[in-house]
């Protein structure tokens, strides 16, 4: 398998050959990073999509520009790898790791003492392996962009460990919690995405040290960037119009919310170009009822809604060869390792639903 994967640097190929079972988890982590990136930016002008025909998961034109969007891409993909490896460890799917072996004996929190038990997610093993694999291409380069990528990779790995929670089970008479057994568990990956999205908004512009040994905050040339802050070199474009050089797909054809004043609102999303309105019929499941035992029966309801899409700029054709930007990338290829190797870790909007015009019941269906 490893010999057929393109663009692996030497260290990555060695790890692939030595730990082939972990490579599947790395592919799953890359996929999870893509989906979470698209979820977090689904209502923004830039929504983590790429050009059709671009073989990379995120789009080479996006990750080649040293923008804050590229910073997020590297962080979330790195976090996805840690998350997927740790999850596989806990499930017993990997030969070289299991639950966290350090969580033994007695522990303490603000509620008192407890006994470590259950299966604590082994984020230490996952973090160490992800660092070795994901950072390998950047360590081979050591140029300004490589330093930026290494920093953001570390931010992503740290985010997974930061968003862990203590889960406990009580043992006692009549539900009393005199004795507790606890374990450390990762939060849902969406919580990691939420955390990184917040750091995206406060990302730090940096410059390289004169001796090339590290990064400094651009506005305060003697201070290093925070370990928890995403960093970037180049300012982001506005992503209003299509520009392959900057990685912008433009917002022409994107769905927008006519009543919103946020980033998904038509004024902001469409960059002042205006929007088109189309009336469509939408069928959804409704009036679902639980029947003992054990099925849920729903009706199918149909309603007519107005949807709004941004007009294209005069410099863009009405039909362009790009994916519909509010939809995720094609998923059937993302889960395999071949697609994963085209991600940054290897060398080399929402419909606006207007007021309901008509609703009718069209029949029942069991689900």
UniProtKB/TrEMBL annotation:
GO terms for cellular component: extracellular space. It is found in: Secreted, Extracellular space, Extracellular matrix. Gene3D superfamilies: 3.30.2460.20. InterPro entries: Wnt, Wnt_C, Wnt_CS. Residues 357-367 have a biased composition (Basic residues). GO terms for molecular function: cytokine activity; frizzled binding. The keyword Cytoplasm does not apply. Keywords: Developmental protein, Disulfide bond, Extracellular matrix, Lipoprotein, Secreted, Wnt signaling pathway. Residues 335-367 are annotated as: Disordered. Ligand for members of the frizzled family of seven transmembrane receptors. This is Protein Wnt.
């Amino acid at each position: 398998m490893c010999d057929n994967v393109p663009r692996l640097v030497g260290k990555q190929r060695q790890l692939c050959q030595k730990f082939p079972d972990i490579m599947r988890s790395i592919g799953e982590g890359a996929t999870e990073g893509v989906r979470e990136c698209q979820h977090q930016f689904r209502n923004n002008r830039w929504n983590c999509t790429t050009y059709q025909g671009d073989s990379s998961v995120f789009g080479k034109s996006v990750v080649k520009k040293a923008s804050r969007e590229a910073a997020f891409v590297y962080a979330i993909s790195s976090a996805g790898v840690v998350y997927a490896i740790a999850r596989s460890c806990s499930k017993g799917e990997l030969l070289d790791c299991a639950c966290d072996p350090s969580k033994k004996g007695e522990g303490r929190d603000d509620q008192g003492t407890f006994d470590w038990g259950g299966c604590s997610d082994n984020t230490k093993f996952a973090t160490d392996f992800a660092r070795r694999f994901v950072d390998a291409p950047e360590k081979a380069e050591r140029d300004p962009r490589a330093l930026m990528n290494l920093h953001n990779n570390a931010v992503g790995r740290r985010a997974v460990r930061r968003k862990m929670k203590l889960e406990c089970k009580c043992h006692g008479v009549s539900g009393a919690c005199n004795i507790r057994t606890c374990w450390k568990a990762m939060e849902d990956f969406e919580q990691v995405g939420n955390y990184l999205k917040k750091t995206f908004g406060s990302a730090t512009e940096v410059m390289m040290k004169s001796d090339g040994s590290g990064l400094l905050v651009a506005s305060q040339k003697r201070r290093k960037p925070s370990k928890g802050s995403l960093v970037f070199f180049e300012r982001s474009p506005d992503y209003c119009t299509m520009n392959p050089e900057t990685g912008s797909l433009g917002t022409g054809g994107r769905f927008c919310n006519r009543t919103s004043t946020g980033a998904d609102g038509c004024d902001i999303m469409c960059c002042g170009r205006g929007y088109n309105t189309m009336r469509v019929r939408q069928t959804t499941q409704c009036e679902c009822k639980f029947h003992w035992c054990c099925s849920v029966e729903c009706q199918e309801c149909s309603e007519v809604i107005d949807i709004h899409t941004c007009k294209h700029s005069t410099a863009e054709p009405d039909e362009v060869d790009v994916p519909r930007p509010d939809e995720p990338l094609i998923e059937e290829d993302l889960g395999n390792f071949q697609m994963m190797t085209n991600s940054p870790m290897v060398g080399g909007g929402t419909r606006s639903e207007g007021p309901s015009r008509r609703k009718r019941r069209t029949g029942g269906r069991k689900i």
